[in-house]
Each structure stands twice: as C-alpha cells, then as structure tokens.
C-alpha cells in the first residue's frame, strides 16, 4: 500500500468523520448501528494516522567526510525510528552559502515537514528561510555565534534546535601543549567566511597565549588563497592549529602538501581534518552526532517533543592521532591516544 501525505491524511480523516455523522443520523433508531459506525470510523482514522508520511529536506554545505557521516547517521536514525514513512530530499550546496539559501527557500516552498541544516551556513540559511518549519542543525559548533544569540543558554527556542560538534576548546589547547611543550609560536589557520571557525580560533588563541605562546591568526577567504596563507603560517610558526573548518576539511591535501614536507605539525579540531593533514585531534563521531539529530527529528515529526524546548545536544570526544604523519615526523603519541583507522 502506498504512503499518504499529511495533506491526504487530513482529507481522508475529514471524509471518514463525515461518513460517521451521516451513518449516525440514518441509524438513530439503532444504538448498535451507531456504535458500529463510530468504531469503524475510529479504526479507519487510526490506520490513516499510522500510515502518515513525512518529507525531510537536508541542506548540506559541502561534501567531506565529517558532514557526509553526519548526514548518514541522521538518515539511519530516521530509518530505524520511522521506517519508510520518511522521504528524504538531499541537496549539496557545494560550499556556497548563497546556494544554501536557495536550497532552503526551495524546501519551504515545497512544504517539507522538517529541515536538517548540516553546517553553520546551512543553519543560517534555514533560519532565514522559515520561522515555522522545524529546523535541526548538525555539525554546528556554537549556536549562539551562528545565530547571533547573546548569552546563549543552550536552547535556541522557536523552530530551531540540533547538535553541536564542539570539542572542549581548552582541552584542544592543552593537547597542543602536551605534544609540544617547548613550542614558542602557534599559527591558527581558518576560513574567515565561517563564523564558528573564528569563534574557535579566538578561544584557542586566548588559551595558548595564557600558556606563554605567541599566537597568530591566519584567515583565508576561500580555497583559492588557502595555499598561500597556509605556506605563510607554516613558515612563521612551530605548530599549526585548524578548527572544525569546512573549507579546510574539503581541502586537506593542500595543507598536508605544505606542512608535512616542512615537518610542521598540524593539530585539528576534528578527525576528518586530522586524517588528511594533522597529527592529533580531540575527535567526535560525526556519524553518532548525526544519529542523535535523527532521533531528535523523529520525536519532533511524531509530536513526541516540542522543538522550542529541546536543548542543543553534544557528544563525547576521543583523543586520536594520525599514525602515518606522526611516524613520518618522528612523533610518538601519548599512551592515551588512539590511532585513526
């Protein structure tokens, strides 16, 4: 039997209700007939409700391992919770915020039941597109920064919630000092178009400067000037740090091609970047992050939870290192670090 849409469900329900009323009027002399009609109407409505279907739009900023894993986890959770009752409309914005806006506006026009915004620019575009359709973010580092919320309390409210990929920034700074206690200078490499990257490097800079390092930020505007800025950062510093930056994540080969031959260690905000160009990271599982977001979506779609009251959810971090790069640079990982597979 084919799935019915929400609009079709309302039509069926209305028709069943009308039929129940007519049956009751025509059989007013028979209590048994009236009861039977009412029972039949209730049973039919219940069957229609159980067959209700949902359409979910996914706007993913760009294709790279972290975001891809989050999307997969989200889809798997919805399949586990709701089976084939969910139709997914997936769109990749090719790392263009303007395309995110076009995608999200399209989702609103088509009347999707929920939007998954995978990465900060996607979340910003979705929030600008609708105040009514539920929006869940994932792979978003700091919602207060992303959405311009001062004194963010952990719950966005309205039609927005989601999950965060933020690993504790003080622990990330401590990771750099643990591996290179003699380092004097650190360069922070990030895309200036990504506000959550700016947030992370600002915090990391404060932590490292408090430990006595000289810290310099190296922002680049897009992938076109990543190589030149990365080269400058590698030339001028003992160690480099890259936050959970989508542009770097999609171009780790550029960073690795510059830093590894120079023997310059790169510390990363997440596993995907570390596996491409880094030595170590405090990593989260983006698949698990996406799966948690999918569980939240299932609760919202079925009416079990109110998105306005759902706090942002986080996941645990694991210390990991890139064995290949560490071996090439002659680095020995601390005992509590796990090799990236």
Automatic annotation (TrEMBL):
Keywords: Signal. Residues 1-32 form the signal peptide. It comes from the Bacteria. Pfam families: ABC_sub_bind (PF04392). The keyword Chaperone does not apply. This is ABC transporter substrate-binding protein. The keyword Mitochondrion does not apply.
């Amino acid at each position: 039997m084919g799935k019915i849409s929400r609009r079709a469900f309302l039509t069926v329900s209305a028709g069943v209700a009308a039929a129940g009323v007519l049956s009751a009027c025509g059989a007013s002399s028979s209590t048994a007939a009236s009861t039977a009609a009412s029972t039949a109407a209730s049973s039919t409505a219940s069957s229609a409700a159980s067959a209700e279907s949902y359409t979910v739009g996914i706007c993913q900023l760009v294709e790279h391992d972290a975001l891809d894993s989050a999307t997969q986890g989200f889809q798997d959770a919805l399949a586990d919770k709701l089976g084939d009752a969910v139709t997914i409309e997936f769109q990749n914005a090719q790392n263009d915020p303007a395309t995110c806006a076009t995608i999200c506006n399209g989702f609103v026009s088509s009347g999707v039941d929920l939007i998954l915004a995978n990465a900060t620019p996607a979340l910003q575009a979705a929030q600008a597109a609708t105040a009514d359709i539920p929006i869940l973010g994932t792979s978003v580092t700091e919602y207060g920064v992303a959405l311009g919320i001062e004194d963010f309390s952990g719950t966005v409210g309205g039609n927005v919630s989601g999950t965060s990929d933020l690993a504790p920034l003080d622990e990330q700074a401590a990771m750099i000092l643990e591996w290179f206690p003699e380092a004097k200078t650190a360069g922070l490499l990030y895309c200036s178009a990504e506000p959550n990257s700016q947030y992370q490097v600002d915090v990391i800079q404060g932590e490292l400067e408090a430990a006595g390092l000289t810290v310099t930020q190296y922002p680049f505007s897009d992938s076109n000037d990543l190589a030149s800025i990365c080269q400058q950062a590698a030339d001028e510093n003992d160690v480099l740090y890259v936050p959970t930056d989508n542009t770097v994540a999609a171009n780790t080969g550029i960073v690795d091609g510059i830093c590894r031959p120079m023997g310059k260690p790169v510390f990363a905000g997440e596993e995907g970047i570390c596996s491409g160009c880094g030595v170590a990271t405090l990593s989260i599982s983006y698949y698990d992050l996406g799966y948690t977001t999918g569980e939240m979506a299932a609760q919202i779609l079925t009416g079990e939870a109110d998105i306005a009251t759902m706090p942002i959810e986080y996941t645990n971090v694991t210390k990991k290192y890139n064995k290949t790069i560490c071996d090439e640079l002659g680095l020995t990982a601390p005992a509590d670090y796990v090799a990236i597979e």
